[in-house]
Give the backbone structure.
Amino acid sequence: MARVVFLGPPGAGKGTQASRFAAEHGVPHLSTGDLLRAAVAARTPLGREADGYMQQGQLVPDPLVLRILSERLALPDARDGFLLDGFPRNVAQATRLESMTRLDSVLFFDLPPERLVDRLSGRRVCPTCQSVYHVTAAPPRIEGRCDVDGHDLVQRSDDRPDAIRMRLKVYAEQTAPLLEYYRARGLLRSIDADGAPGQVAVRLRAALT
Ligand code: ADP
């Protein structure tokens, strides 16, 4: 079970489950969204190029994402296992991934589209430790402050209405075809992603045993 992909629409809760899952299984959590945001924050050439696409909710072009992902996948801690979150996001990326490594399973986070907008627009994140909250479903102990390090929480620039609409459209057109791709390879397992993070974590564990 060591080489796992989390697949699902934006807002399905992949990132929240991924941090827990990675800690429990002792594998690195490889989020292309987090890697790209770090590159944007560090103002690297790649980050500067990716920034505009991300703000609009478009996919960052494959060559950039593949570069950042393959560098990360080559680090020693990912040798025996990893959890991929947010990659692959289209069939071309999936094909490239297949040439880089084998996979044990692909977990699909199933959530009705009407629940996604609420999840995304209520999301708040800690800019320093990346902890994720939701204004009503998973609020921090003190409003607007991170439970872990006390930093002021922020809204991601792509969690605003225009970008959310674009991300959902991009998901439907480019990422959803991966369900069939992985089903055909016998790797796909679905979990009901509607519910509190603790409930979803239980279903996730059950799906992987
Ligand atoms: P979410 O799944 O909530 O949309 P992510 O943090 O996974 O959030 O991704 C944020 C943005 O980063 C995406 O909208 C896209 O612009 C970019 N991105 C992340 N992963 C990829 C990828 N595999 N291919 C292309 N762009 C990506």
